[in-house]
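F.,

This is the one I mentioned.
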């Protein structure tokens, strides 16, 4: 009777599901944009309620910048652009930027 050889696979495939890297949207302070307008933009683009928007605006006003939220890269970039454009349309230098988290 012929001996049977059973071959074992030499490698194992481990499946990993990678999450897309997250990006922070950051609000920068400036000397010209009215506070109420910053609050309005935060509410419209980032769906914040009045008191949260006010707190975020005041943090940027006092510290120079404030992290607003984290999103997937394309969402973060689209929202930052949209919010910056709203300021620009009124002639304000309001600026939102993005940065990878970590
Ligand atoms: N510093 C502005 C003012 O005194 C208000 C302001 C707050 C502007 C936050 C931008 O990200 C900002 N009118």
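My design for it:
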């Amino acid at each position: 009777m012929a001996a049977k050889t059973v071959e074992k696979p030499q490698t194992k495939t481990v499946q990993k599901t990678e999450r897309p890297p997250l990006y922070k949207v950051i609000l920068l302070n400036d000397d010209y944009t009215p506070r109420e307008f910053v609050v309005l933009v935060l509410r419209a683009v980032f769906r914040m309620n009045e008191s949260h928007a006010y707190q975020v605006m005041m943090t940027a006003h006092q510290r120079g910048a404030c992290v607003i939220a984290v999103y997937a890269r394309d969402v973060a970039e689209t929202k930052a652009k949209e919010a910056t454009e709203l300021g620009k349309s009124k002639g304000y230098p309001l600026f939102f930027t993005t940065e990878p988290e970590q």
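The beta strands are 22-28, 65-72, 95-100.

Talk soon.
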